[in-house]
Design the sequence.
C-alpha cells in the first residue's frame, strides 16, 4: 500500500499567526525519507508555494489558488504528463478563471459593495492585513486566478454571491478572507484529477490523506480516504460532517505534525 498526502497550508501545515512550519519538521522528514508525495493544496499563489516548497526542500506537484490549477514538476518521478499544458518547468492542468476576468467583475461591484481585494491593495497593505513580511506579500499579490478580499458589510455577502454567480464566479470563505473564483474550480475537483493521475501511475493500492482547517478545505476532505481536520487557532473546529474524520489535537503545524506522525506510524505497522 502507498500513501499520498494533500495538505492545506495556512492554519494547517503553517501556523495561523506566524506562518511557521517548524513544529511539523519531524513528520516532514519522515515524508521525505519514505518518498511519500505531499501535494500542497492551498489558496496561496504559485509564487508563494514555490518558495515554501524550496524552504521545505521538496519538489512535488501542488495545487494553487483554491484548486485553480495543478502543477506537476517536469520529469516528476519520470512521469510523462502529456495531457497537461506544457510550461517551462511544469505540466499544468487549469480549472480556474483568469485573474483579469475576476478583477473585471470586482471593479464592476466596487461602487455598490465595500470590497477590498488584493488587486486594490498595495504590497504594504497586504503585508499589514495578512501579517506576512513584505517580501512574501509581494508573492501573495502575484495572482493568476483568484482574488482574496475583505467585505465591509457582512450582510452583503448573499447579494454579492448572487451577482457573482451570474458571471460564473463563486465566493468561498478561507481562514482570513473571502475568495472570488471561477465556478468550475475547487480543491475537491483538483484533488480528484490529481488522484486519478496517481492511481494510473502507482496503482489502485494507494490511500489518500487530506488535511485542512477551513470551509474551502471541505471539498478536498470529501475526496480522500483519510480526512484530517486541524482546529483553528482558538481551538474551535470548522463544522465538517464526515464519518471517518480525524481531528487534530492542536492548531497549526503542531497539530499537523502529531496527526501525520500518527498516520505514518500506523502505515508503517501495516507495511511490516
Ligand atoms: Mg487553511
Sequence:
Amino acid at each position: 500500500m502507498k500513501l499520498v498526502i494533500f495538505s492545506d497550508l495556512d492554519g494547517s501545515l503553517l501556523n495561523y499567526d506566524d506562518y511557521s512550519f517548524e513544529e511539523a519538521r519531524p513528520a516532514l522528514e519522515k515524508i521525505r525519507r519514505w518518498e511519500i508525495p505531499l501535494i500542497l493544496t492551498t489558496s496561496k499563489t504559485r509564487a508563494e508555494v514555490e518558495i515554501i516548497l524550496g524552504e521545505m526542500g521538496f519538489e512535488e506537484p501542488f495545487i494553487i489558488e483554491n484548486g485553480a490549477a495543478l502543477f506537476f514538476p517536469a520529469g516528476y518521478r519520470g512521469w510523462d504528463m502529456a495531457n497537461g499544458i506544457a510550461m517551462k518547468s511544469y505540466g499544468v492542468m487549469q480549472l480556474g478563471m483568469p485573474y483579469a476576468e475576476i478583477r473585471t467583475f470586482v471593479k464592476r461591484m466596487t461602487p455598490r459593495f465595500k470590497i477590498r481585494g488584493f488587486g486594490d491593495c498595495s504590497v504594504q497593505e497586504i503585508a499589514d492585513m495578512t501579517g506576512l513580511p513584505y517580501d512574501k506579500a509581494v508573492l501573495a499579490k502575484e495572482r493568476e486566478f483568484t482574488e482574496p478580499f475583505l467585505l465591509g458589510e457582512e450582510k452583503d455577502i448573499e447579494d454579492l454571491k448572487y451577482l457573482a454567480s451570474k458571471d460564473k464566479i463563486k465566493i468561498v470563505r478561507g481562514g482570513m478572507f473571502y475568495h472570488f473564483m471561477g465556478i468550475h474550480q475547487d480543491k475537491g475537483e483538483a484533488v480528484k484529477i490529481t488522484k486519478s493521475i496517481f492511481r494510473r501511475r502507482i496503482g489502485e493500492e494507494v490511500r489518500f490523506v487530506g488535511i485542512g482547517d477551513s470551509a474551502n478545505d471541505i471539498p478536498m476532505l470529501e475526496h480522500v480516504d483519510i480526512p484530517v481536520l486541524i482546529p483553528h487557532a482558538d481551538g474551535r473546529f470548522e463544522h465538517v460532517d464526515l464519518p471517518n474524520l480525524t481531528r487534530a489535537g492542536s492548531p497549526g503545524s503542531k497539530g499537523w505534525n502529531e496527526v501525520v506522525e500518527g498516520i505514518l506510524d500506523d502505515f508503517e505497522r501495516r507495511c511490516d
